[in-house]
Amino acid sequence: MSGVLVYDCTLRDGMQGEGMSLSAQEKLRVAHVLDELGVHMVEAGFPASNPKEAELFELLSAESFGTAEIAAFGMTRRRGVRADEDDALRLLAGCFAPVCTIVGKTWGLHLEKVVRVDRAENLRMIEESVAFLVAEGKTVVYDAEHFFDAWRDDADYALRCVRAAAEAGAAWVTLCDTNGASLPHEVEAATAAVAGALATPVAIHCHNDAECGVANSLAAVRAGAGMVQGTMNGYGERCGNANLVSIVPNLQLKMGIACLPDLAGLTEASHLLDELLNFLPDRNRPYVGANAFAHKGGMHVAGVNVDPATFEHIDPAAVGNTREVLISELSGRGTVLQRAETTGVELDAQTAARVLERVKALEHRGFHFEAADGSFDLLIRRETGDYQPLFRLESWRVIAEKREDGRVQTEATIKIWVDGERYVRTAEGNGPVHALDAALRAAITETYPHLAEIKLVNYKVRILDEAKATGAVTRVLLDASDGVDTWGAIGVSENVIEASWDALVDSLEAGMLPGRAHHERGAAVRLARRAT
């Protein structure tokens, strides 16, 4: 097989997952992102099933797409109603979408207990619905719901269902593992049987309830399926749909089957959809996750430095991702050297060894540099003598007052020296960290204007010795961002405010390092613009 068509169901099937909600305008943006990737068909949903869908179809009708064809989704005609008199089918026929995807029943259990029609009537419903839409000039994709359950129950009848659609003129017949219950060997065998029995091309649509959605999709392609349906990031009801973000690179990079013209935008597109949905991107997501090409063990980092193929199954750039080297007490000198090189610091082996010993000592005290790359960058510079603090601290003080009326007021005062000049600033905040941050920025933002772009985006506190309760050593992790880059900083102390101050200062100083204060924004800026 030279190529496979990619059919995306994110805007319809994906929206059935928990927490999934996009406005019509946001769905339009997703459609364009998919089109830019080169996706062949984008399923937009049921036209006019609700006001949002009606708005989406109106918006889509006025747009142009370079690659993607928009598919409207519906069902076979109702029981006892002619296809040309079925309101839902007439709506599909009248909409602008060139592709109509209709789903029909295949499994005897559903015929008996859900739609309550006999098997002969079900075949007529399939055949007449497809024929009506074909006669209206539509390209019809027929989705055989619960196909693999039906195949296990009665393979002969399951085959008759898809043959009815094929003979009525469907351009594709899709074998759906609707319950996500099938295993790869079952999917491969059934798909091979159907592909061998029909002249019409076969598609595959899998769900992930048995953690086999991707594997089942690959197995179906091996058996002759020429189209893969799925969703971005595996969004969908229950355990989700088959994840196109994994399926496509597996097909294209591992099996040599062309899917999309270029996979370099895959990571950016995956993260953009998470951003639109207000989801935190899964760091462990294959191919596109932040940890997909992250290396922590010293031996692994040493191997990657010699030849990336030793511990990377593909070049991260092939899918638009990057290699990450994680620092911890498990690291070797190679990890330190690579991080230094990445951040523009010249480091010899002796200094790298000294940095590593310092890391081990600090992590023994409770530091965690894997999650605090900004603090680690500063640590390297402190050990090399290439560290210039933003200021010299004289003192800081925080006052938190809870009043009789229930209001809490927090005030912070800092005294610092910047370029030989003393600054005293006081600021209020909704907590000690906020107040300290406000006071510090008031003192130094004029000297360092880039600090105005740096925002706190995450704040996590953990006690390290539960037996000591409120007297325990506390670890504070901050994530900061300037809208393009994001980095972590850490502070450890028995005093949670001191730990927070140390992490806060590290986060600001790391944001001022060369490469952040004057970085090239490139693709990251495009991502930020799309997300706003």
Can you describe what's shown?
By secondary structure, the chain is an alpha/beta fold. Among the domains are: 5-261, TIM Barrel; 294-384, no CATH class. It is built from 17 helices and 16 strands. It has helices spanning 24-37, 51-61, 87-94, 108-115, 119-135, 147-167, 184-197, 213-222, 244-254, 266-276, 298-306, 333-342, 349-365, 373-384, 432-444, 496-511, 522-530; strands at residues 5-8, 41-45, 69-75, 99-104, 139-144, 172-177, 202-206, 227-230, 294-295, 324-325, 392-402, 408-418, 421-429, 455-463, 474-481, 486-493. Strand 2 (41-45), helix 2 and strand 3 form a beta-alpha-beta unit. Helix 13 crosses helix 14.
What share of the residues lie within helices?
25-40%
Overall residue-averaged pLDDT value: 88
Classification by helices and strands: alpha/beta
Gyration radius from CA atoms, angstroms:
29 Å
The tally of strands reads 16
CATH superfamily of the domain at 5-261: Aldolase class I
> What's the helix count?
17
Distance between the termini: 40 Å
* CATH topological fold name of the domain at 5-261: TIM Barrel
Oligomer state of the chains in this structure: single chain
Query: Tell me about the biggest sheet?
Result: 8 strands, parallel, barrel
* Shape by Cα distribution: elongated
- CATH architecture call of the domain at 5-261: Alpha-Beta Barrel
Stretches where pLDDT falls below 50 for ≥5 residues?
518-532
Can you tag this structure with a few keywords?
532 residues, alpha/beta, TIM Barrel, 8-stranded parallel beta barrel, 16 strands, disordered C terminus
